[in-house]
Recover the amino acids of this structure.
């Protein structure tokens, strides 16, 4: 019975993938998928990456239409960097709780309290918030960006865990917002200790969005892209992975003979998983939902993103 259901599902997915290929041609569209998307979405993607790589790809593509399979702020970054393209998202409900933990009013109030500080925003922020910041960063370039900023006082939004991690690499005063990623923050020391006991030969690779005490346990700490690269190039054959479960798709693709154990079964971002193949078909057929960023917000947010791109 279960085998029959699986067969039916596979057949459905085959049909949906064929339809997506046809629609992509008709609309001159490209599909960009974040590493945390469902496997079947990553399979149909023209390009897979983290939020920064995908935004860069959006800016450089010749396609007229971008289907952005990720969460809302990522679609916004794509639209900001590619304002003349149509940016579609398969499901409007795909938001990021961490990005929603900071808003413009709160940030303005903090800026007032610290008038000499420069605002560094993790790319996981809304376009509105980006437009109130001096420079953006990603988990891959955060330390370089902070060092490059022309101030010894930094307001950091929104992730307190990543903020804590980067603060260890700078002498600058960091005023850290109290946001966090619901998914990465769930991983505990106990989870990792249990996994290490179960897989003593595995290295623990961890994203700095996890809690500081968990990050401290890492054999390697880095962004999702850095973790993927590290696991691909490492001589080690077995890893305990401390980032979102969808990363397994690229890890297994790159290193089919290595073993990957996710540090808990809770490392799943429900927001990333609301997209599916049916919704990709529908958004291409109906040309919606589309991402819209008001031009006055986009211009200021773009300046913050472009300052980041200039940091070498
Ligand atoms: S994994 Fe965390 S930071 Fe990424 S989209 Fe989900 S909630 Fe936001």
């Amino acid at each position: 019975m279960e085998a029959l259901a699986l067969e039916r599902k596979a057949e459905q997915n085959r049909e949906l993938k064929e339809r997506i290929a046809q629609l992509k041609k008709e609309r001159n569209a490209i599909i960009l998928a974040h590493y945390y998307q469902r496997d079947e979405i990553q399979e149909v993607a023209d390009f897979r990456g983290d939020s920064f790589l995908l935004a860069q790809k959006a800016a450089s593509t010749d396609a007229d239409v971008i289907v952005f399979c990720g969460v809302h702020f990522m679609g916004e970054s794509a639209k900001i960097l590619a304002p003349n393209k149509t940016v579609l998202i398969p499901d409007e409900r795909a938001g990021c709780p961490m990005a929603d933990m900071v808003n413009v009013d709160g940030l303005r109030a903090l800026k007032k309290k610290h008038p000499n500080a420069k605002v560094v925003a993790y790319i996981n922020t809304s376009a509105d918030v980006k437009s109130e910041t001096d420079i953006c960063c990603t988990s891959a370039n955060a330390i370089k960006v902070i060092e490059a900023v022309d101030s010894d006082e930094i307001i950091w939004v929104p992730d307190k865990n990543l903020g804590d991690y980067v603060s260890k690499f700078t002498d600058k005063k960091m005023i850290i917002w109290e946001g966090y990623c619901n998914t990465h923050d769930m991983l505990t020391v106990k989870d990792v200790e249990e996994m290490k006991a179960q897989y003593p030969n595995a290295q623990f690779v961890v994203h700095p969005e996890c809690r500081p005490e968990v990050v401290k346990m890492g054999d390697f700490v880095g962004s999702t892209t850095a973790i993927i690269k590290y696991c691909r190039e490492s001589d080690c054959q077995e890893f305990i992975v401390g980032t979102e479960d969808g990363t397994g798709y690229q890890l297994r693709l790159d290193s089919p003979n290595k073993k990957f154990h996710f540090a808990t079964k809770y490392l799943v971002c429900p927001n990333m998983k609301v997209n599916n193949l049916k919704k990709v078909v529908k958004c291409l057929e109906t040309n919606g939902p589309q991402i819209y960023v008001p031009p006055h917000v986009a211009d200021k947010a773009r300046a913050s993103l472009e300052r980041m791109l200039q940091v070498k």
